[in-house]
Amino acid sequence: MRPPRGCGGGPGLWLAVLTELCPSSMGSSDPYCIVKIDDETIIRTATVWKTLSPFWGEEYEVHLQPTFHSVSIYVMDEDALSHDDVIGKVCITRDMLAEHPKGFSGWVSLSEVDPDEEVQGEIHLQVEVPGSQDSRRVLCCTVLEARDLARKDRNGASDPFVRLRYNGKVQESTVVKKSCYPRWNETFEFELAEPAGEKLCVEVWDWDLVGRNDFLGKVVFSVPGLEAAGQEEGWFRLQPDKSKPREDDLGSLQLQVRLRDETVLPSHCYQPLVQLLCQEVKSGRQDGQVHLVTLLDETTTAECRQEVAVNLVRLFLGQGLVKEFLDLLFELELAKPCEPNTLFRSNSLASKSMESFLKVTGMLYLHTVLGPTITRVFEEKKYVELDPAKVEVKDVGCSGLHRVQTEGEVIEQGRQHLQSYLGELLDAIVKSAPACPPIIRAAFRQLFRRVGERFPQHQFVAVTSFLCLRFFSPAIMTPKLFHLRETHADARTSRTLLLLAKAVQMVGNMEPVAGRAKEAWLAPLLPALQQGIAQMKDFIARLVGTEEEEEEEEGEGRLLGPPAAVVKEGPLFVHKTRGKGPLLAAAAKKLHFCLTGEALSFGKSPGAECVNDLNQWLSALRKVCVNNPRVLRAYHPGVFRGDKWSCCHQRQRTGLGCDRTRHGVTLQDWTDPLDPAAEAQRLFHHLQAPTKGLSLSSSLPQGKILGATGAGGWPKRPPV
Fold it and tell me: What range(s) does the Ras-GAP domain occupy (predicted)?
């Protein structure tokens, strides 16, 4: 979560589960990953069936509390008949992330999951060594309360008690039934040993009537240190027991993890920067002027240019100037020395911004166009192969009349299947021009005009280089990453999708491929590709429209205002947990969810809202929106029953919450594209880092960029 406006640094974690799980000696598995922040589940990846070398390729950006301690990734084996098994886990602490400021990338070995290692929560203690009492020296420990303990029982709670160990003696507190927020207020005394070289161990356990008690965590104090300090009081994080090392090879996980600390100031602090960017976009390209957008392009590395592009697109969407922003980028890109055949094919800021713009504003359109064909490919599971080097011949015919298909028959059959998929997809694209969001049509219209002024023969290719090569084809190749499917494709379906994506790319290239394609075996598809090129040209002509259509759309835009960008749309699975187990797919309900910059709909089907569920979702939104300083910092996870709260036993209904508001309620990859303060902060960070010592007098106004400034007019970041 983003921190409150004006408060200290709020870390954002960028996690890419890119991985292959290195095979071990476990046999076949159906692996998936669960990601926990401080023992709190926030992410579940897709299940990859029947493999020991899965590839997920999923990326997440999670907003965290500044006080988080660790990130744990559990590799699970899904079992439809019983509880899912834990294969192993990887734990990455905050200190480990701090040692890699540019991010960690590589293979990490899985470790065994020991129940005694799986602890969470904190305990409130007061430990002191008071003065002499009746010629005795005593060690006094007051156990006050605990919070957020692990849930070990089937009822979703625990029955915690405290066990204290010192100098071979053991004392125990009373058991608090069915609570993860127990209160004891009990004091224990031990006679100090001479010399006082022992340690005081405070352990928390879950009492069980049948079977052994479950370990919930411990805190260890050095008694000589207590003698020197006199007293220690506060909340102490429970620590695990030391687990025994396991000799078996559980495999390893490949990860990319990066922690980013950022401070988002109040919106008015960023107004000068936002106004400067907006003024530049409204003025358009000026000969001889160094543009701030150009400065961002030239001073950012290839690795972070994508992030800068996303920030700019979201910022200008919020300002209603995204069309003008993209038009300025088109002008600046076309003003550079370039070849028409490589136009917008590089990873420039213009290319990345247009790609990000399509993903932010066009996901609903993408699902409408590609959804039916992608679903058909997944359901039919046809064998499609055109490469003779990869063809697998197989038996055909009925019982008793088997014969082996020839290589040519297999290829011809694959061509027919692929041509059928391609034809259906192209028909859907051609018919989709009226359904394309007006803001996307306006952007392509501007691109079509700008390219026509310099390279008239390449207007259509300029549009398809974005629409086909950077939008449609990647979504066809990996539909899971574009939320078109809930799971990744199997090997056969993946090959079909890859060939279909290649075909769409060739149509997008707008030229005959005979004799020029790297894969000569795609030649049988040439007639369908040539027909597709003609269809695509007709579609682009209708997409960019005429002058009259443009005026009509602009008139509607003036009446209706800027269209609301779809942030997230599609089926939403609400998962429930039982006890300490993982997320249960069987205990999930499917709902249709659509969130735009202006409205939220939530129901069992599109257009049908469920008021109760919608109110629950709005409540979840309120809990996670801690960027509003008026939102409560704490809440009660229990209920007020009788005369007290079930979680903390407070007797005041309006008493302060006992649990911090944090990412316990998560929206996963939900982000608001219309939050200018957050986007301006990240843009300022990119400007600040590479431009130290660089004179900006030619393009930036004198004086302050943000509210609080340091030397040279650049703002000082508040201490983190």
Answer: 304-509
